[in-house]
């Protein structure tokens, strides 16, 4: 009795094999329906497996941390260190011009002539590394025997009581406000072949690469020539020797790479990578204004990566100021020092780029069921319509024969 009641609720009535009618049209529709189901299901699976990047924006809570800046800059017409001999009617003076990278920020911190984790590579006039060697400072060249104690020639004497290099003698003279009148009279300078090196360095370039660590606050780092002095917290470059050099140098440059934080993924292109600028004017300054945003990449199959994205605008001007060559209505300010300046600003915003699946597994199964049901329903309706048309055509044909 109960079974008969359930039978009346059956939504899937069956037919016996004897009353089933199979047609060629039905077979073709079955094959076409199966192919469509497979194609649509596979497309749904690909869409489910597809990874999309979902960006989120938060306030950066790690403002007290430090950040690394990865830098690689080539200066083909500015030596890493250049000795210049100045002639005067009364004296001749030897001066060492060193390219230095300095960092300053709004908190008051300063880093002068950064050398830790930063390398200077001397380049010849073809842009090739000289002896594939890295240098720190030109003055640190040859060393003497451990028992050697060089004279300071009346200059300031260090605590050791010895001036064992030409640079030691020059430093002692500079601290007393003196100038070296005859470099050939200084045995340390003769031994280190300073004059020969002056000629070798005239056509050299420099490549500065490495990492500098800065506070996560607004600041700047710059590459500039000249002796650095700090007077009442004012950062000063003595560039007089740079302009008196008979070999005209300039700050044409190529920024091979510049990024903040860990190396970004390949998909992220840094706006300054590969940027090349040429100039024949030694009295020229190049300024890059950078806005950096802390960025975190969260991957499905690999550890998260903390890095930064940044935007940049640039400006360059001659130190003499005056009207712009391309736009006379624009007037440049006068003053400054030659070099490359990177003004950076750290944004308080933090961006998280999170990899997520385009859908859930349950959603994928639901799509497959919907595909199967929809295709079979449409195919069934089409089959019934085609079969009905075929039956009516056969009836008309048989009636025509009887008449």
UniProtKB/TrEMBL annotation:
Residues annotated as signal peptide: none
Endoplasmic reticulum vesicle transporter N-terminal domain span: 6-83
Domain of life: Eukaryota
Presence of keyword Membrane: yes
Keyword Transmembrane attached: yes
One GO term (biological process): endoplasmic reticulum to Golgi vesicle-mediated transport
One Pfam family here: ERGIC_N
Coiled-coil intervals, chain numbering: none
Main location (coarse class): endoplasmic reticulum
GO cellular component, one term: retrograde transporter complex, Golgi to ER
InterPro entries: Erv, Erv_C, Erv_N
Subcellular compartments: Endoplasmic reticulum membrane; Endoplasmic reticulum-Golgi intermediate compartment membrane; Golgi apparatus membrane; Membrane
Residue ranges of domain Endoplasmic reticulum vesicle transporter C-terminal in the record: 152-383
Keywords: Endoplasmic reticulum, ER-Golgi transport, Golgi apparatus, Membrane, Transmembrane, Transmembrane helix, Transport
Membrane topology recorded in Swiss-Prot or TrEMBL: Multi-pass membrane protein
Function text: Plays a role in transport between endoplasmic reticulum and Golgi.
Recorded family membership: Belongs to the ERGIC family.
UniProt-recorded name of the protein: Endoplasmic reticulum-Golgi intermediate compartment protein
Organism: Neolecta irregularis (strain DAH-3)
């Amino acid at each position: 009795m109960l079974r008969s009641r359930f039978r009346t609720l059956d939504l899937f009535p069956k037919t016996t094999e004897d009353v089933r009618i199979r047609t060629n049209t039905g077979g073709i529709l079955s094959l076409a329906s199966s192919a469509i189901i497979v194609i649509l299901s596979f497309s749904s699976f690909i869409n489910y497996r597809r990874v999309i990047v979902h960006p989120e924006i938060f306030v950066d809570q790690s403002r007290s941390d430090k950040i690394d800046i990865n830098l690689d800059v080539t200066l083909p017409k500015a030596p890493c260190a250049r000795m210049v001999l100045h002639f005067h009617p009364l004296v001749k003076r030897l001066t060492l011009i060193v390219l230095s990278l300095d960092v300053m920020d709004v908190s008051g911190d300063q880093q002068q002539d950064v050398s830790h984790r930063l390398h200077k590579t001397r380049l010849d006039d073809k842009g090739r590394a000289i002896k594939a060697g890295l240098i720190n400072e030109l003055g640190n060249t040859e060393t003497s025997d451990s028992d050697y104690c060089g004279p300071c020639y009346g200059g300031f004497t260090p605590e050791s009581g010895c001036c064992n290099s030409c640079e030691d003698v020059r430093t002692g003279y500079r601290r007393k406000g003196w100038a070296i009148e005859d470099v050939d009279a200084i045995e340390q300078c003769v031994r280190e072949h300073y004059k020969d090196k002056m000629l070798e360095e005239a056509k050299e370039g420099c490549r500065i690469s490495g990492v500098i660590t800065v506070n996560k606050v607004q600041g700047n780092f710059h590459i500039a020539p000249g002796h650095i002095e700090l007077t009442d917290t004012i950062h000063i470059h003595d560039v007089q020797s740079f302009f008196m050099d008979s070999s005209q140098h300039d700050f044409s440059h190529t920024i091979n790479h510049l990024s903040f934080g860990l190396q970004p993924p390949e998909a992220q292109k840094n706006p300054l990578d590969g940027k090349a600028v040429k100039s024949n004017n030694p009295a020229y300054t190049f300024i890059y204004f950078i806005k950096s945003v802390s960025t975190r990449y969260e991957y499905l199959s690999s550890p998260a990566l903390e890095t930064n994205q940044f935007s940049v605008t640039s400006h360059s001007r001659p130190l003499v100021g005056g009207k712009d060559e391309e736009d006379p209505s624009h007037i440049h300010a006068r003053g400054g020092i030659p070099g490359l300046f990177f003004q950076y600003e750290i944004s308080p915003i933090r961006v998280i780029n999170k990899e997520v699946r385009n859908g859930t597994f349950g959603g994928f199964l639901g799509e497959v069921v919907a595909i199967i049901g929809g295709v079979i329903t449409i195919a069934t309706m089409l089959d019934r319509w085609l079969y009905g048309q075929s039956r009516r055509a056969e009836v008309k044909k048989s009636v025509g024969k009887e008449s």
